[in-house]
Amino acid sequence: MLNVPPQAFPAPGSQQRVSAGGRAKVPLKPGRSLMDWIRLTKSGKDLTGLKGRLIEVTEDELAKHNKKEDCWICIRGFVYNVTPYMEYHPGGEDELMKAAGTDGTDLFDQVHRWVNYESMLKECLVGRMAVKPIAAPKGMVPEKKGLGASVKDLTPSYDWFQTDSSITVVIYTKQKDMNAELVIVDCQDKRLRGEIIVGDHSYLVEVDLDHAVQEDVAVNIAEKVGKIEIILKKKDNVHWKMLGQPLESHNTFIKRTDRGLFYRKCKLVSKTEVTHDTKLFCLMLPKSTHLHVPTGQHVYLKKNIAGTEVVKPYTPVLPFLPLDFKEPFSHDGAHIYLMIKIYSCGLFTQALDHLQIGDYISVSNPEGNFKKSQVQTLEDLFLLAAGTGFTPMVKLLNFALTEVSCLRTVKLIFFNKTEDDILWRNQLEQLALKDERFEVQFILSQPTKDWVGKQGKISSSLLSEFVKISRKDSKVLICICGPTPFTEQGVQYLKDLGYSQEEIHAFTA
Ligand code: FAD
Ligand code: NAP
Fold first, then answer.
1. pLDDT tens, 39-48?
2. Does the pLDDT of residue 132 top 70, yes or no?
3. Res. 139: pLDDT tops 60
4. Predicted confidence band at 150 (pLDDT cuts at 50, 70, 90)?
């Protein structure tokens, strides 16, 4: 049973009150938290008004249900009565009403395609759209459909061959700069899934294999020619007549954002304290998974809480801050490290905190719009982080110090409430001593009287004091991450100080 006091929910400053992805969020009334919604869905109350019947909905019928007190929305061909959910929607009623009586798939995908609406709204399901779904279900876009000629030319292809003991699937991407971060492979229960990222598109090989294979999968990438080999070991040395049965999205090349999120179960192998309320979770990927989360990108964790699948984003970090800059830090690729603050009233983080070593949790493919190329030719890099907004800065810092040859300065301006909240303070101070390009400035909003450092909150004057380029025409990037209002204010102050859109990167969902 979850220990969530209903009265405290959602508390001021909760994720359920503040916006993700730069959208304004409205304060939810007391008793309208996600946990309250889960309770309502479990209460047995008829939330569709159809007494459990599922119906076929025509476009005309859908359009009639366009008022707050009678609001239906179609997402990926399924129609939901969202009226009972209105007051629980963290984005507010007006956001939901934008899609009232229509197909809200595009709007939904733009704002939060990672939210598991199928689970959240399952009790609100009215039925399917009659005749044709207005938008194709994720991952079901027919092969190459709707792609421009130039994209068609880029469409990867695949082939396979076998020896007595192995099966090799070869994917020809036609891309020169393939790397491990662009290749995601999973093989579970005879199901092989190989996703290749090509720009903002995704190519998928997805088959139900002809025969069983062993757990460990090898992936070879010929970076210069863009050829990828997925090598599977046969369980039995039999001759395969075919690779396997193609699954729904097999051999499709579609926009990345149209591809559904894929999850695999990862084992919690350690949980170590970082501060009084923040822990470093180490998750082990299955042996059959090949996945490297790119710098600046996040993954989604999914967990069933009280019968509802809840999904939250987290940004992988390194196991520690490396102090050796000769080459970029690389670990075995088998583990994902997440630095997570446990909120006393947090729905998801409380559930995470209760995970035991050896328990499993679902981890998605990476997402995010940060590109390393934004950093490659930089001279000055500023990182503005608040609280766990530090997490995307970890890999970024390591990448900049090891791989950006023209870099002159990296400055982390780290906002926290108290000294006890500062994440990896010792490591940051050691790094600053070791590398003269790196500087760290801690700013506390609620320090004790002993604090001799800087005090305050993000402001124009603080930013003009600390964000100073090393030369007049320096190539600069300022990355910012923290609670959404912090990030939004920071971006505005930086713009007011004369920095251009290209010189600012805000990490959001
Ligand atoms: P909720 O149930 O949503 O909130 C309940 C309680 O948590 C509130 O009552 C309040 O006490 C507290 N709370 C929640 N958010 C805040 C806040 N911003 N300020 C003050 N109190 C708050 N978090 C990490 O710890 N590590 C990460 O690496 C990380 N990466 C993220 C990446 C992205 C792209 C995004 C959008 C968010 C990231 N987060 C990260 C935040 C994370 O997704 C959750 O929002 C967070 O863990 C809270 O979840 P919850 O369900 O426990 O809290
Ligand atoms: P926190 O401890 O509550 O706050 C850290 C610092 O930020 C404090 O000094 C705090 O000052 C200040 N702050 C908080 N809200 C502010 C606001 N509205 N305006 C100005 N300053 C503000 O932070 P946290 O609990 O660790 O939360 C971290 C946030 O980062 C979460 O919202 C999380 O979702 C987000 N995050 C995003 C990503 C991403 O990639 N998008 C990654 C990781 C984390 P006060 O004393 O005034 O509170």
1. 888 888 889 8
2. no
3. no
4. low
| 314, 341, 446, best to mutate for ligand 1 pocket (most atoms within 8 Å of CB) | 314
Distance 235 CA to ligand 1 centre (A): 43
Torsion of CA 69, 74, 78, 84, to 10 degrees: -20
Report the separation in Å between the CA atom of 342 and the middle of ligand 1, taken as the mean of its atom positions: 8
Quote the CA–CA distance of 190 and 211 in Å, as a whole number: 7
- Ligand number nearest CA of 317 is 1
What is the 3-state secondary structure of 265-312? EEEEEEEEECCCCEEEEEEECCCCCECCCCCCCEEEEEEEECCEEEEE
Selection from 263, 257, 251, 289 nearest residue 172 by Cα: 251
Among residues 26, 28, 30, the alpha carbon closest in space to that of 8 is found at 30
- Cα of 171 from ligand 2 centre, angstroms: 42
Please state the φ and ψ torsions of residue 292, each to the nearest 5 degrees.
-125, 115
Cα–Cα distance measured from residue 37 to residue 157, given in angstroms and rounded to the nearest whole number: 45
279 alpha carbon, closest ligand:
1
* Residue 234 in this model has a pLDDT that exceeds 80: yes
Q: Which residues contact 255 (CB under 8 A, 6 or more apart)?
A: 200, 201, 202
Cα of 109 to ligand 1 centre, how many Å? 21
